[in-house]
Amino acid sequence: MSAALDGKPTVLVSEKLGEAGLALLKEFANVDCSYNLSPEELNAKISSCDALIVRSGTKVTRQVFESSGGKLKVVGRAGVGIDNVDLAAATEHGCLVVNAPTANTVAAAEHGIALLTSMARNVAQSDASMKAGKWQRNKYVGVSLVGKTLAVMGFGKVGTELARRAKGLGMHVVAHDPYAPADRARAVGVELVGFDEALATADFISLHMPLTPTTLKILNDETFAKMKKGVRIVNVARGGVIDEEALVRALDAGIVAQAALDVFSVEPPPQDSKLVQHERVTLTPHLGASTIEAQEGVAIEIAEAVVGALKGELSSTAVNAPMVPAEVLTELKPFVILAEKLGRLAVQLVAGGSGVKTVKLY
Ligand SMILES: NC(=O)c1ccc[n+]([C@@H]2O[C@H](COP(=O)([O-])OP(=O)(O)OC[C@H]3O[C@@H](n4cnc5c(N)ncnc54)[C@H](O)[C@@H]3O)[C@@H](O)[C@H]2O)c1
Ligand SMILES: O=C(O)[C@H](O)COP(=O)(O)O
């Protein structure tokens, strides 16, 4: 039976979602799982959908909102980063954007630690070398983590969990985050420092801020020049926070000794990119959230948020933003400015395509 005939809303799921989440959605809606849609196919389908659920692989562009003809009420991002959703266009079209802010936190932090440790000990490179028939014990001497300074850039959920784990490895951890409260840092035993100080003192840098207009290419030629020679960089945030050509230059100049990257400005990155082919760069294909446990959790979290939004249950006017400084709260209108400033929006509700009705932040 079509959505129009049975009265149920239609939810389009454009990337793989865990079974438990799909089951929750199916109790309330007709669910269309159509993976690998081209942009044209997505634009064609969207006019019959009340909700769209995506991961990072689907670009929810202005064209998607325009093609929906006003039917699309909610976009659910099954994960944290909402940089693949045109928030300004969503707001203008009166469409709610929700994400799944908590379920993949530990998975991303664990992946950051996996990259940190495997980079320091050349695990990927020496594995490839052995598979090529070599036994290169001298070539792959690593560096120790204990006693080294790690700068966590972005001390939110993932950054905090990664910091806890790094302290367990005996690292000295500092963090930079313009919005992080001092008591959270104190609770973890981490010192909050300024951006330049973090760059200048770190032996290792781990990136955990969202991709926003402010953080775009925040690591660039100028900021690489402020780093300690021989620094090692982990990125499980977003590829766009690094100027990737500048990173190649910093690697070749010896400023950056190694990098371990889970995310790229274009995904997948071109195979012939200098970064991908660089001997001192370790790569994973955006796997930070990809554990069985995280994906089941994310699916449930996003299904509940999307169903709640479709039922209108997220329409309270309370603002629940314990971690947001008061001066930022005064900038609730327009919503997009808030999202850009904080980069950690969890839920937005838009009334009539203009003012924000409810904002819930995590
Ligand atoms: N690789 C993956 O699969 C994966 C998985 C989860 C999250 N992520 C990425 O990691 C990001 C962080 O996730 P989270 O759950 O910790 O989000 P979060 O919102 O809890 O934390 C982000 C933190 O970054 C801070 N921040 C904002 N602008 C900053 C700036 N200019 N400099 C330093 N800090 C800044 C915020 O104040 C916030 O504390 C997400 O936005 C997403 O892009 C990637
Ligand atoms: O922002 C996130 O939650 C991560 O980047 C995960 O993205 P994914 O859902 O595409 O794995």
From TrEMBL:
GO MF entry, a single one: phosphoglycerate dehydrogenase activity
Keywords: NAD, Oxidoreductase
InterPro entries, A to Z: Ado_hCys_hydrolase_NAD-bd, D-isomer_2_OHA_DH_cat_dom, D-isomer_DH_CS, D-isomer_DH_CS1, D-isomer_DH_NAD-bd, NAD(P)-bd_dom_sf
Domain S-adenosyl-L-homocysteine hydrolase NAD binding: 138-292
Pathway entry: Amino-acid biosynthesis; L-serine biosynthesis; L-serine from 3-phospho-D-glycerate: step 1/3
SMART domains tied to this protein: AdoHcyase_NAD (SM00997)
Enzyme class label: oxidoreductase
Entry EC number(s): 1.1.1.95
Catalysed reactions listed for this entry: (2R)-3-phosphoglycerate + NAD(+) = 3-phosphooxypyruvate + NADH + H(+)
Gene Ontology CC terms: chloroplast stroma
Family classification: Belongs to the D-isomer specific 2-hydroxyacid dehydrogenase family.
Annotated protein name in UniProt: phosphoglycerate dehydrogenase
Organism: Tripterygium wilfordii (Thunder God vine)
